[in-house]
Amino acid sequence: MDKVIRDGHVAVVYSPGHGAGWSTWNQEYSTAELIFDPGLVDLVLTSKEQEEIVVYATLKWPDACLLGLSDLDVKWVPEGTKFQIGEYDGHESVIVFDEEDWFIA
């Protein structure tokens, strides 16, 4: 799985606003694919047009719920850190853990 890594930190895409979660509301796709996708990371960091992100996501994940795209953000997690994406009322957060079975940046 390709990841965007800068200065020892991995880019993790998540949806911090309320309403709909990006990775948590798209269970038909791999969570790792949704949160680490380099193309999506690049668009979230650089795109001035929300429509670019919508087009990219629609083409890449045609059955995905796109409601969480409007407020995507990137959190930089130190490489090798165990974490999970938490969700409450559509609000996603990156939660760092020191337990088994979490994603590793």
Describe this structure in words.
- The chain is of the alpha+beta class.
- It has one domain (5-104).
- Helices cover 25% and strands 28% of the residues.
- It is built from three helices and six strands.
- The protein has helices spanning 31-36, 38-46, 50-60, and strands spanning 5-6, 9-14, 73-78, 82-88, 91-96, 103-104.
- Helix 2 (38-46) packs antiparallel against helix 3.
- 28% of the residues are buried.
What is the general shape?
A: globular
Strand content: 25-35%
How many strands appear in the DSSP assignment? 6
Please work out how many helical segments DSSP would assign: 3
- Please report the distance between the alpha carbons of the first and last residues: 11 Å
Regions with pLDDT < 50 over 5+ consecutive residues?
A: none
Helix content: 10-25%
Major sheet attributes: 3 strands, antiparallel
Query: What Rg do the Cα atoms give?
Result: 13 Å
Instruction: Label the structural class.
Output: alpha+beta
The SSE string, one letter per element, is: EEHHHEEEE
The number of distinct structural domains comes to 1
Mean pLDDT: 91
Strand order of the largest sheet: 1-2-3
